[in-house]
Amino acid sequence: MTDTLLTNARLIDPENGTTNLGAIRIADGMIVEVLQGQDDGSMEVLPAEGLVDLGGKCLAPGIVDIGVKICEPGERHKESFRTAGLAAAAGGVTTMVSRPDTIPTIDSPETLEFVSRRANEAAPVHVLPMASLTKNRAGREMVEIGFLKDAGAVAFTDCDHVISDTKVLSRCLTYARSLNALVIAHPQEPILSAGGSVTSGKFASLRGLPGVAPMAERIGLERDLALVEMTRARYHADNLSTAASLPALQRAKSAGLDVTAGVNIHHLTLNEYDVGDYRTFFKLKPPLRCEDDRLAMVEAVASGLIDIISSMHTPQDEESKRLPFHEAASGAVGLETLLPAALRLYHADALDLPTLFRALSLNPSKRLGLPTGRLTVGAPADLIVFDPDQPIVVDRFKLRSKSKNTPFDEQRLQGRVLRTFVSGEQVYGPDA
Amino acid sequence: MFAQRHLLGIEGLTRPEVEEILDLADRYVDLNRRPDKHADALQGLTQINLFFENSTRTQSSFEIAGKRLGADVMNMAVAQSSVKKGETLIDTALTLNAMHPDLLVVRHPSSGACNLLAQKVNCSVLNAGDGRHEHPTQALLDALTIRRSKGRLHRLNVAICGDIAHSRVARSNILLLGLMENRIRLIGPPTLMPSQVDQLGVEVYEDMREGLEDVDVVMMLRLQKERMDGAFIPSEREYYHRFGLDPEKLAYAKPDAIVMHPGPMNRGVEIDGILADDINRSVIQEQVEMGVAVRMAAMHLLARNLKARSGHDHGIPAHGM
């Protein structure tokens, strides 16, 4: 048995909420020993074949990123499994949970099988595919949830397409419930928000851009939660962005519904004014909100009301962004900037590191029933080493993603991933 | 001093810059009233009017302004040409840029389109209306009209009435009149008001009579036909009843209040036809006249800055033959 000892590490343990110094031994792709405490020579440590001194840097469970768009099949010029995988490894994402909004939609066991096969060939990190909830994400007929689940679909989502027919959605939820399948939605009242490209308010009025009312998100969420109450389905409300949604979420959780919620990193770190002079890299769906909303989302992550932070990685090529704001495509890449951007919240004293990794690693793992996201013996050795203080200046042309549409271009961030281990293998690092 | 490279909006302009444009425009009003209307501020320069939206009034105003100042003016109505072949806005702009124009006058249906173009071309870009964002020369010509009629452009009560939400004219006027320290009132149904508009330093009224109380200037806006179908207002006749300007409602304003409209007017929808033609109250024809003068002034100043930046006189090739 070959084993490696990662010593002199600051162990970020999201389960216990601790950041102690210690060491972790990995073998056969698993964590086999966790040693807490200062190594002052008194600790009895068995020798290992590989020994890596981490010099006091942070060691945390790898990020499990729900909602990564990989663009394969259909739009490989924007991103491929290979490039997304390299970006993920460099960003500390050890599991990409891929979105089904590709061309064609991942809505059959056959298309899902393509994703699983390509992913394993090309990406250095784990890829767990999601499937759509309705065929072609059209909101009319449900997919073969049973077959797809057997084929490896970890969750079912129509992504930013809202199933507006409540009868269809209630049947999907009921059927999914019988298979214990997780349904993920991006809540939105699609008619109220139709045609908008920024959040409504003073900024939208000044810029003459059509607005999306924050209330549209709350209406969508309230509707979904009512159906969840009716069907008792497992439901994850992803990509929430407004304070108006939070009371509804709190009520659902208090009522004991099987509900969790997610927010993407951009809604935690940017606001509507970042759009500035019609900068299309800041065009997102839902749009960046006002500062009060951003602060409410950060607070909700800190309190645990919002469970999961994701990158909502959405590659777009230059052509689809080099357009007038209203015509430009939505979305931003995020795999490589997720952690440094999230560390902004740590440096701003809004979240401590275990809380951050609870939202980045532990909670998404728990929600998907994965053994990852923990620093415990027997957990997979999906680990990252990072320096939370190292300053970086983001250069979008140095991103590993094929698409370079990051809103953090030329911004100063603090925090850098130094090494990434997937199943005990180093896939990113100084000598990988 | 007007130090801008482009005229993309009123946002970003300073008070002295606005005043310099208006002062120069005053001189061009005099020129335009003479039999010989020619000056040479744009001599040797090329002006391209790039209109992605149909326009008769604004485009001809820019064309006359350019020609009176000696520019070579070309009109491109893109609505009918390359956009239909799939060419992007930036490609169209780069194609024109390669022909070395000096002034690019752009109208586009998307807010921010002129800002995007200005980043990609070497010449000066003049915004002739972008989506719902800004229409700076309209606000400047309105300001000139007010200043000439009222003798000043500050401490006036100005009411802007109608479809504020979809109006770039309203946005530019709010910014300009606010910059010059006037009291601005917006009057219209709440369905035609932008969100959180009260945070832009204006007072909002839903009752037109109340809103017109003691105002010096009444600016009416055009109500687009497609907004009259019940989606924003119940009907044309109810709109006219509540928000159409007629002599009865105008009586609430100051006795010498002037009536303005950017045109084209819907007589009997937002404004009473007889009132619009009343030469004692309506300055709508003057607005058109001021439009040419303001555009001459704006292009003159942009050309001056262009020459100052390039360091040599335009029209003379940089390297000999």
Write the layout of secondary structure elements.
The complex is a heterodimer of chains A (432) and B (321).
Chain A: E1 3-13, E2 18-27, E3 30-36, E4 50-53, E5 58-61, E6 63-68, H1 81-91, E7 93-98, H2 109-122, E8 126-129, H3 145-150, E9 156-157, H4 166-178, E10 182-185, E11 198-199, H5 202-207, E12 211-212, H6 214-231, E13 234-237, H7 246-254, E14 259-264, H8 265-269, H9 291-303, E15 308-310, H10 318-321, H11 338-347, H12 353-368, E16 383-393, E17 412-422, E18 425-428
Parallel strand pairs in A: 1-4, 1-5, 6-7, 7-8, 9-10, 10-13, 11-12, 13-14, 14-15
Antiparallel strand pairs in A: 1-2, 2-3, 5-16, 16-17, 17-18
Chain B: H1 15-32, E1 46-51, H2 57-68, E2 72-77, H3 89-97, E3 103-108, H4 113-118, E4 124-130, H5 136-150, E5 157-161, H6 168-179, E6 183-187, E7 203-205, H7 208-212, E8 217-220, H8 236-243, H9 247-250, E9 258-260, H10 273-276, H11 284-310
Parallel strand pairs in B: 1-2, 1-3, 3-4, 5-6, 5-8, 6-7, 8-9
Count of discrete alpha- or pi-helical segments spanning 4 or more residues of chain A: 12
**CATH class categorisation of the largest domain in chain A:** Alpha Beta
User: H/E element string of chain B?
Assistant: HEHEHEHEHEHEEHEHHEHH
Which structural class matches the secondary elements of chain A? alpha/beta
Shape of chain A: globular
Main sheet of chain A? 8 strands, mixed
Tell me the Rg of chain B in angstroms. 20 Å
* Total DSSP helices of chain B: 11
Strand content of chain A: 15-25%
- Going across the biggest sheet of chain B, name each strand in turn: 7-6-5-8-9
In terms of DSSP E residues, the strand content of chain B is 5-15%
**Regions of chain B with pLDDT < 50 over 5+ consecutive residues?**
314-321
Can you walk me through this structure?
The complex is a heterodimer of chains A (432) and B (321). In chain A, the strands form four sheets. In chain A, strands 1, 2, 3, 4, 5, 16, 17 and 18 form an eight-stranded mixed sheet that branches. The two termini of chain A are 21 Å apart. With 432 residues, chain A is α/β, with parallel strands linked by helices. Chain A is globular, with a radius of gyration of 21 Å. The mean pLDDT of chain A is 95. Chain A folds into two domains: 104 residues, Urease, subunit C, domain 1 (Roll), CATH 2.30.40; 307 residues, Alpha-Beta Barrel (TIM Barrel), CATH 3.20.20. Chain A has twelve helices and 18 strands. Chain B has 321 residues and is an alpha/beta fold. Chain B has a five-stranded parallel sheet. Chain B has a four-stranded parallel sheet with strand order 2-1-3-4. The two termini of chain B are 35 Å apart. The longest helix of chain B is centred in the last third of the chain and has 27 residues. In chain B, strand 1, helix 2 and strand 2 form a beta-alpha-beta unit. Chains A and B meet through helix 5 of A and helix 4 of B.
